[in-house]
Amino acid sequence: MATAINRRDLDAGRIDLSDIVTGKRIAPTAPGEILRDILSELNITPYRLARSARVPQNRIAGIIAGTRAITADTSIRLGRVFGQSDRYWLNLQGAYDVAKAESGDGGYDEIEPLAAYV
C-alpha cells in the first residue's frame, strides 16, 4: 500500500522529489494497460470479463494488446461490469488518443485560427 506524503515534510523540504521532477512528459497510458492491471489485481481473466460484459473475447484481447480502441459500446459495458460511469473508459480512450496525437509531430503549432468560437 502506498504511503502518504506529509504536507509538513513536503513544505520543509524533507521530501526529495528531484528524481521525478524533470519536466519531461510521461508517456500516455493506454486504456488496455489499465484494463490489464485491473484484471490482474482482481484476478479476473479476459475470458471471464468478455462473458460478463457480453462481448466477444477478441474484443477484450485487442484492447489489452493495444490493437483495438475502446468504443462507446465497450465503455458502457466495462463501466457496468466494474461499477463505473458509462463514460469512464471512453474518457480514458479519448485522453489517450489526444495525448498520443499531441506527442507526435502533427503540425498543430502551424494551424492558424480563423476565429474564436465559444
Descriptive account of the structure:
By secondary structure, the protein is mostly helical. It has a domain of 69 residues: 434 Repressor (Amino-terminal Domain). It contains 6 helices and no strands. Helix 3 crosses helix 4. The longest helix has 16 residues. It is extended and about 50 Å long. The mean pLDDT is 91.
Rg is 19 Å
Uncertain runs = none
Helix/strand class: mainly alpha
Share of helical residues: 40-55%
What separation lies between the terminal Cα atoms? Answer: 44 Å
What is the second-level CATH architecture of the domain at 31-99? Orthogonal Bundle
N-to-C series of helices and strands: HHHHHH
What is the CATH domain class of the domain at 31-99?
Answer: Mainly Alpha
Which geometry do the CA atoms define?
Answer: extended
- Number of β-strand runs: 0
The amount of beta strand, in percent, is: under 5%
Largest sheet: none
CATH topology of the domain at 31-99: 434 Repressor (Amino-terminal Domain)
Write the layout of secondary structure elements.
Layout: H1 7-11, H2 31-42, H3 46-53, H4 57-65, H5 72-82, H6 88-103
List the defining traits of the structure above.
118 residues; mainly alpha; 434 Repressor (Amino-terminal Domain); 6 helices; 0% strand; extended
